[in-house]
Amino acid sequence: MTPIIRLPGLAPLMLAATLAILGVLIVLPLGVVFQQAFAKGFAAYLEPLTQPDALSAIRLTLTVAAISVPLNAVFGVAAAWAVARFEFKGKSLLVTFIDLPFSMSPVVSGLVWVLLFGAQGWFGPWLQEHDVKIIFATSGLVLATVLVTLPFVARELIPLMQDQGADEEAAALTLGAGGFTTFWRVTLPNIKWALLYGVLLCNARAMGEFGAVSVVSGSVRGLTTTLPLHVEVLYNDYEFVGAFAAASILACLGLVTLVIKTLLEWRHSGELSAGRRH
Amino acid sequence: MNFRQVDDTSPSVNALEIKGVSKAFGRFPALKDVSLQARDKEFLALLGPSGSGKTTLLRVLAGLEQPDTGEVRFAGEDFLALPVRRRKVGMVFQHYALFRHMTVAQNIAFGLTVRKRSEKPARSEIADRVAHLLQLVQLEGLEKRFPSQLSGGQRQRVALARALAIEPKMLLLDEPFGALDAQVRRELRRWLRELHDRAGVTTVFVTHDQEEALDLADRVAILKDGELIQLGTPNEVYEHPATPFVFDFLGQACRMPGVVERGRLRVADWESDAPTGAPDGAVDVYFRPDEVTFAPADGAGLAAQVRGVAQRGPDVRIDCLIEGETVELQAHGPTLPPGVTTGLSVRIKPLRPQVYAAG
User: According to the CATH classification, is domain A40-277 in 3.40.1440.60?
Assistant: First the structure.
C-alpha cells in the first residue's frame, strides 16, 4: 500500500479547487446540453432526432466507426506485436509515427487526404477518370477517422505486450502449437482486456471526431455529415433544440464509454497497461 | 539397493549431438564453435556465469533460436531442419511461462489439445493424462487453480508437468530453481532428479549455480563467453578443472605463484612432486581453502602465520599470512589441529594443488 501523506490545510483546498473546476468545466456544460435539448419538452427533443438528416447522420457515424475501429484494432495488434516481439532498425521511428496522430492537429489528418485524393490532389484526376469518390464520401470519412484514431489500440497494447514478454508464446510453440493456434489461444487471451479497452477509447474518439472529418466531409446534409458535423450544421442554422438533441446523443455515447471503461479498469486493472502507467 | 551410476563402459549412445554451433546477436558472439554430446537418458548441466551462452544454447536446442553455423542432431535426426513444434522437446522456462489465463489442468493439457485432430487423444484420455501428471508432480486437487494462485514451487511443478505431457524426447530446463528460495530449491532438486530417472528422458538443464550442477547432473558442461571450456562428470570437473576459470567457478580458490622444474613443484619454500601433466616454468598454483593440512612450524609445507581464527557454525575460517599475502583457509571445527591459534606459525600443505601455466 502506498502511504498517504497529508499536507496540513492543503487537502481541503485542493479538493475544493478540483470540485469547483470539474463542476464549472464538465458538469455544468453537460447539464446545459441536456437542459437545452429538453428545453421544449420530450416531444420537441425527439422530433429533430427522427428527421431523415439526423437519422442518416447517426447511421453514418456508426458506419464510419464500424469500419475504422476494426481496422485500427487489427493494425494495433499487428503494430504492438511487431514492436513488442521483434528487434529491428527504425523501431523507435515506427513508435514515433504511431504516436504522430496524437500530437498532430486533426485538421492536418483530414487535409492530407484532400491533398492526396481531392480534385486538385495527387491522385485526384486519376480517381475522377475512374469515377472513384473518396473526398466528400464515406471512404474519405473513414480514412480521416482511421488516421486520427490510429494510436489508441497500439498504444494500449505495446507496453502490456512488452511487459508480458514472449515466453508464453515460446512455450506454446515447444508444446507443439502452430503460429495461429498460439496467437488464438495464448497471445489474444492475454491481451483481450487491454484490446477491448483500446477499442473502446478508439471507438469513442472515432464517433466524436470533428476536425479531420469536417475537412473531408464537405458537410453534405444527409450524405456526409456525421453526428458531430450534424450538430454544427444545425447550430449554425439556429436550430438549437435539434443541435442540443444531437449533442445529447454524443454525450450519452461518451457516458456509456466512460462506464464501460471504468468497469474494465475496476475488474481487470492488472491486465491493462493504462492501470500500470498511472 | 539401487545406486545411480554413469555407465561409461557401454557403447556410448549419444542421443544429442551438437557440432560446431556458433551464434551471434548483432556483433555480440553468444556461442563460439560449441561441440558437445549428451548420452541417451543423461542428465546434462550447462553451467556458466551470466553471458556465457548457456541459455542461448538451450534455446538453440529448443528451436527458439537458429544458430549461424553448426549442427544439432538428436537420435540421428537433423534437429535444425525441424521447426520448434515438431521437435518434441519439453521446455521449462526460467519464469515458467505458464499460460496465465488457463487453469493448471488446461496448462498441462495444452500440448495435447493443440494436436492435429487425427493425433489428438480423446477428451477422457487427456483428462486421465492430466490426472496422472498432477499426481506425478504432487499437485492433486489444484487443477482448477490459476497460475497466479500458486506458489513459486507449485508453478515450477506445473511447468514441468506441462512439458512432460507431450512425452518429450528431451527435457530442457532453463534455470529451473532460479526464482525459488533456498529451501524449496534443495527439496525440488532431489525430486527433479528422481523425476528424470523415472521419466527416462535426456535432460539438459541450464544453471549458474555450481553446487546445483555438481549435485544433480551426470555430466557438467562449463561455458564461458560462448565457449565450451570443459565437459565431464561432476567429479572430473571438480577434481581436475581444465582452466583456472573452471577452478574458480566451481568453488572457492586460493592462488599462489610457483615454478615447475624437472617434475618438481616449488611454491615459496615448499617443494613437492608436480601433478602429472603440469607445464614447466612459471605456474599458478590453485588449491581449495578447505583442502589443506596443517603441520607444526618445523614440518613440511608452506610457512604461514595465523592472523585470526573465526568459528562460523560448523566451519572455521583461518586467516593466514603466506609469503606476505593474506590467504583465507577453511577447516571443519572438530578436525582443526589444536595448534592453530592466532599468532602462531604453522606449515600448510595443499592436498590437491592444481597447476596452470602462469597467465
Answer: no
Q: Is the per-residue pLDDT at B335 higher than 80?
A: no
Interface contact A172-B114, CB threshold 8 A: yes
* Alpha-carbon span B53 to B222, nearest angstrom: 10
What is the reported pLDDT for B279? 86
Put simply, the answer to whether A171 touches B93 (Cβ < 8 Å) is yes
State the pLDDT at residue A220: 76
CB contact under 8 A, A173 and B115: no
Closest-CA residue of A relative to B159 is A171
**Are the C-beta atoms of B339 and B298 separated by less than 8 Å?**
no
Of the residues B248, B283, B306, the one at which a domain ends: B248
The three three-digit cell numbers of residue B228, written as one number: 565450451
Full domain range(s) for residue B291: 253-357
CATH number at residue B317: 2.40.50.140
Shared domain for B43 and B181, answered yes or no, is yes
> Could you tell me the pLDDT band of residue A146, with boundaries at 50, 70 and 90?
very high
Angle at A50 between CA A218 and CA A53, to 5 degrees: 15
> Could you give the 3-state DSSP secondary structure of residue B226?
coil
Q: Are strands B292-296 and B354-357 parallel, antiparallel or unpaired?
A: unpaired
- Choose the mutation target among B91, B130, B174 for the interface with A, i.e. most A CBs under 10 Å: B91
pLDDT tens sequence across B11-55? 457 789 999 999 999 889 999 999 999 999 999 999 999 989 999
pLDDT of residue A198: 92
Report if residue B314 sits inside a domain: yes
